[in-house]
Amino acid sequence: MNQTVTNKPFIAVLSGQRQAVPPIWMMRQAGRYLPEYREVRAKAGGFLDLCFSPELAAEVTLQPIRRFGFDAAIIFSDILVVPYALGRSVRFEVGEGPRLEPLDTPEKISALATEADFSKLEPVFEALRRVRGVLAPSTALIGFCGAPWTVATYMVAGQGTPDQAPARLLAYRHPEAFSKIIDALVGTSIAYLLKQLDAGADALQIFDTWAGVLSPREFARWSMEPTRRIVEGVRSARSDAKIIGFPRGAGALLPSYVAATGVDAVSIDWTAEPKLIREQVQSKVAVQGNLDPLALITGGAALDQAVDDVLASYAQGPHIFNLGHGILPETPIAHVEQMVARVRAYRG
Ligand code: CP3
């Protein structure tokens, strides 16, 4: 088998090469827990203005790298820029989260564009070029998109919902119409991810935050199959593309997800069962995760214990240390420092 030659520990792990000290980064590492982020955010105006200002987006992407020396930077943007490029209205209300025009009937869906206007996303590509230009060669740059299922949950409901019921109902009642949304997202996401690679991304992550609410049959149809098509589409143009899947809450369905989608790694949440993951997932691909973000808020001995548990569970195989979901705004910075120091002191 060909060994990938890379100076980036993060990329080496995605190629299946375990590192003595696992590379580390955090989902949502650029964000409101950082005072320097809040400062830039305040002067940017709206959240989308921040995403679409290459200078400011590059700056907030780099902030957590400067502060903590993470092994990977993730480009600052959002999964909902894809529906925006498909011509949907997308707004972020302060303190309330995203608001879109609901796409909840077959009639509305029949008018959905199938081709995105990528000129709207040019600032994201420019931000990637800027970040790659100044990032150390050993630090990886991650591009991303939402998985079609998760993006569709917001497009259908027009906002976040506790159980994604509007999208689940639409998928049961009108599967052909719902497929049209998924197909538009698959095609757009392939092109979007390829453009991110062209702009300097070293790896890609597909966020399926709401995968865990689907029954096994619906999970196969709406989460795994569209993700498989994206992986295949990206690899048909870039056979060496490194892709991480994050089907949050997939639990015992993770081994099938890995087999069906062909991802190089899976990001797992903190409820994962270590033995199942080691034997049926990490034996095939790299694993990323999975500290409980609430342990990070807690700090102290509870945080040390939680970090040690993650390392004991996964660091003997190809592992990237991360949280099981995004860092929360109320997290003390000192706790992030404590976590990074403990991971970097690991000698396994
Ligand atoms: O990880 C990073 O640092 C990169 C940036 C990033 C953001 N969103 C910035 C953001 C990434 C990778 C995302 C992904 C994303 N966006 C997901 C999937 C991952 C996950 O966390 O579940 C989802 C479901 C979204 C949709 C979204 N964006 C929601 C539901 C919200 C509101 C909730 C919230 O945290 O405020 C956003 C807004 C958002 N995206 C913020 C950030 C930093 C906060 C907005 C602000 O700063 O005002």
Estimated share of beta-strand residues: 5-15%
- The residue-averaged pLDDT reads 97
Query: Low-confidence stretches at least 5 residues in length (pLDDT < 50)?
Result: none
Number of helices: 16
Oligomer: single chain
Q: What would you say this structure looks like, in words?
A:
With 348 residues, the chain is α/β, with parallel strands linked by helices. It has a single domain, classed as TIM Barrel (Alpha-Beta Barrel). 50% of the residues lie in helices and 12% in strands. The radius of gyration is 19 Å and the shape is globular. The model has no long low-confidence stretch (mean pLDDT 97). The structure holds coproporphyrinogen III.
Keywords:
single chain, 348 residues, TIM Barrel, 9 strands, 12% strand, binds coproporphyrinogen III
